[in-house]
Amino acid sequence: MKELRVELDKQRSYPIYIGAGLLGQAELLTRHVRSKQVAIVSNDAIAPLYLSKVLAGLGDYQTETVILPDGEQYKTLQYLEKIFDGLLANKFSRNATLIALGGGVIGDMGGFAAACYQRGIAFIQIPTTLLAQVDSSVGGKTGVNHPLGKNMIGAFYQPQCVIADADVLDTLDDRQLSAGLAEVIKYGLIRDPEFLDWLEANMPKLLARDKAALAYAIERSCANKAAVVGEDEFENGVRATLNLGHTFGHAIETGCGYGQYLHGEAVAIGTGFAADLSRRLGYLSDADVARVLAILHAAGLPTRPPTEMSTEQYLDLMAVDKKNVDGKIRVILLEALGKALLPISVERAPLQATLNAYAG
Amino acid sequence: MKELRVELDKQRSYPIYIGAGLLGQAELLTRHVRSKQVAIVSNDAIAPLYLSKVLAGLGDYQTETVILPDGEQYKTLQYLEKIFDGLLANKFSRNATLIALGGGVIGDMGGFAAACYQRGIAFIQIPTTLLAQVDSSVGGKTGVNHPLGKNMIGAFYQPQCVIADADVLDTLDDRQLSAGLAEVIKYGLIRDPEFLDWLEANMPKLLARDKAALAYAIERSCANKAAVVGEDEFENGVRATLNLGHTFGHAIETGCGYGQYLHGEAVAIGTGFAADLSRRLGYLSDADVARVLAILHAAGLPTRPPTEMSTEQYLDLMAVDKKNVDGKIRVILLEALGKALLPISVERAPLQATLNAYAG
Predict the structure, then answer these.
(1) Is B183 known to be catalytic?
(2) Which residues of A participate in the annotated binding site for NAD(+)?
(3) Chain B: residue nearest A141 by CA?
(4) pLDDT score of B325 more than 90
(5) How confident is the model at residue B338 (pLDDT cuts 50, 70, 90)?
(6) Of the candidates B155, B319, B131, which has an alpha carbon nearest to the alpha carbon of residue B242?
(7) Packing angle, helices A263-280 and A286-298, rounded to 10
(8) A233 CA to chain B: closest CA distance, Å?
């Protein structure tokens, strides 16, 4: 097992445990549980696979389980309320602990519920998708979607620990595996050119679910994420670079209806957009853009946007991105492969040129 | 105008402005506004009286208004979402500012919406009831109710400033004025015995809306609140004493249906319960309890609980209070008049004796 740390102030630093067979090691979990009351939030796809394994280690606790339907379309205030219903019906106190057992949606919702329940209870992330293990479970961004914008309602709220058990990836379908690789590739593109090289060389191994390759990719991704979050927890600067491709990607997720594209798929398409726009603004070469598209394709990811979305629809949806200032659209661009720029406002002309070249 | 400060770490300290005619001084407001986008959240009772006055000072800004129905029964996640709808429909960015213009319900909801919108935007409290001016607008407790428990979903989130204009109390009805006095009396009971003496002597002036007396009561209450919050922002200790009477009061509000009792009325009844229980446990004398009930009566407040609630219903509702640990009921008691104890677990017998003596 590897242990990384997210270094934050005020005793809020926490470990990320990465390795095989971690779900069977109850002590990893219980050392971070604060009281006898433990709630587990999961979904109807993950719970049948892993809930009993987690519960087996919690025999001495008062456990309650809230199972949500699986999918981004349920990441709403309405379904969030079901978590509060379960906690209150069982009289859970402010010293209770909430465990989020699932992918990014469950992690975001469980974390946000923990942030708000009685103004904050302890929580633990047990991510069960590659995407959640390498990205969304680390760093404390929690929240739900709004029909007009992705992740628009939420909180910065850090977990007690993250337990990334590589074994759970065995049950992940290929589409979910590829979606997770979109965020893995992101770290190479924004700040880790050596990792980008490694990913190009090892993509076949990752897709074949080579355990050692996957473990290395998770660990290096988490190390990148922990470094960025430790430097800028509340996204006043460099943390925004983790949003490469996300401004476009969120517009796609919202515009097509949550759940049609997996988050990682939308990010992959958005990364292609960002690379194209970086080229138009003189940062990347044609060869750089081709290299970006090639590695996304190699990971089994889409790079063509949905044909049903118009340029105007993109612009309208991108106007509510969290990076914007006074309603002006700002995006993350690449200065080079392996180096992202801080968010910048982009002139309408090149942005429209990129959108027109891709959009329907 | 008086200016008090709530002293917090990390440049989060903020002023409370107290005085007459403050709503007409736009500069007080605009010095705390961060960008061109300003949202005002109010209700349909307050907006007709004061919204135009606030908007008059914001002519240079992009302003949007969200008006909620008036009443505790609308302090829910469903109505909270209406605030997000308004902000997103108008493409408000993360650097926008939200102004909560209203009583405790609007302040709690506006503050919680600001805490969650894009994971946190700036907000300003303009409390328009005595209760909000002396208590709920100061200290950063925000949130909404759940059918099973009051204020169960929320955040600690501090405003940029609080503007308490004593002139707005002119339009407050007598019932609301008395409700506010419940929290004023609380400060005397928990930590300020001299203020308790002053309140006993000056209650007729306060009820007659003597401006100088009201201004003094607001200022001294805010000074007490600011001191407690500055010492213990996240309620790990002394801040819990501000909940005198609230454990019982919240049970009454939830049990009778939100909106039937005003918060201050429920707190007044709960304060009588807490005094009675303090007597049963040997802290207060019969004369002390009589003095507590007398000042509540003098303020026009009820001290008899609703007859429709049984002892069992109180115990059930109190079992989800935020002060509880592992589901065990904890309450705030008075060691003497002017001195509260930290939350303590109470044996079933004296608690039931108090409830039986009062409950239906």
Answers:
(1) yes
(2) 70-75, 104-108, 128-129, 141, 150
(3) B119
(4) no
(5) very high
(6) B131
(7) 170
(8) 12
Selecting from A35, A119, A154 the residue whose C-beta is nearest the C-beta of B154 gives A119
In this structure, the answer to whether residues B167 and B181 fall within a common structural domain is no
pLDDT at A25: 95
Confidence of residue B10 (pLDDT cuts 50, 70, 90): confident
B16 & B112 share domain: yes
Domain boundary among A121, A136, A171: A171
Torsion of CA B163, B167, B173, B176, to 10 degrees: 30
Q: Is B250 a catalytic residue?
A: yes
Q: Which of A79, A157, A139, A154 is nearest to B112 (CA)?
A: A154
DSSP secondary structure, A17-33, as one string: EEESSGGG-HHHHHTT-
CA–CA separation, B196 and B185 (whole Å): 7
Q: How many residues does chain A have?
A: 360
Question: Which residues are within 8 A (CB) of B139 and not within 5 positions of it... i.e. 6 or more apart?
Answer: B6, B158, B225, B226, B228, B229, B233, B239, B242
Q: Which residues of A touch B156 (CB under 8 A)?
A: 119-120
> And the tokens for B103?
């009583």
Cβ-count burial B80-119 (b if 16+ within 10 Å, e if not): bbbbbebbbebbbbbbbbbbbbbbbbbbbbbbbbbbbbbb
Q: Please, which residues have CB within 8 angstroms of residue A210's CB and are 6 or more apart in sequence? A: none
Q: How far is B26 from chain A (nearest CA, A)?
A: 21
Which residue from B169, B49, B154, B68 is spatially nearest to B108, judged by alpha carbons? B154
**Residues of A catalogued as catalytic:** 119, 141, 183, 225, 235, 239, 243, 246, 250, 263
Q: Which amino acid is at A321?
A: D
Tell me the C-alpha distance between A30 and A60, whole Å: 10
Same domain for B352 and B264, yes or no, is yes
Closest CB from A88, A141, A322 relative to B148: A88
Cβ-proximal residues to B48 (8 Å cutoff; 6+ apart), any chain: none
Min Cα–Cα distance to chain B from A121, Å: 11
- Rg of chain B taking only CA atoms, in angstroms: 20
Lowest mean pLDDT among A303-317, B152-166, B217-231: A303-317
Is B91 known to be catalytic?
no
Q: What is the mean pLDDT of residues B200-218?
A: 96
B231 catalytic? Reply is no
Give the domain CATH number at A85.
Answer: 3.40.50.1970
Does A45 share its domain with A178?
Answer: no
Q: Which of A131, A146, A171 is the last residue of a domain?
A: A171
Options B10, B119, B347, B348, the catalytic residue: B119
Distance from C-alpha of B49 to C-alpha of B298, rounded to nearest angstrom: 29
Size of chain B, expressed as the number of residues it contains: 360
pLDDT at A142 over 80: yes
Indicate if the pLDDT at residue A321 is higher than 80.
yes
Domain of A354 in residue numbering reads as 174-358
Is B71 marked within a binding site? yes
Is the Cβ pair B36, A326 closer than 8 Å?
yes
- Say how many domains are in chain B: 2
E strand residue ranges, A297-343? 330-331, 334-336, 339-340
State how far residue A100 is from chain B, nearest Cα, in angstroms: 18
Q: Which residues of A are annotated as a binding site?
A: 70-75, 104-108, 128-129, 141, 150, 183, 246, 263
Question: Binding residue per annotation — B141?
Answer: yes
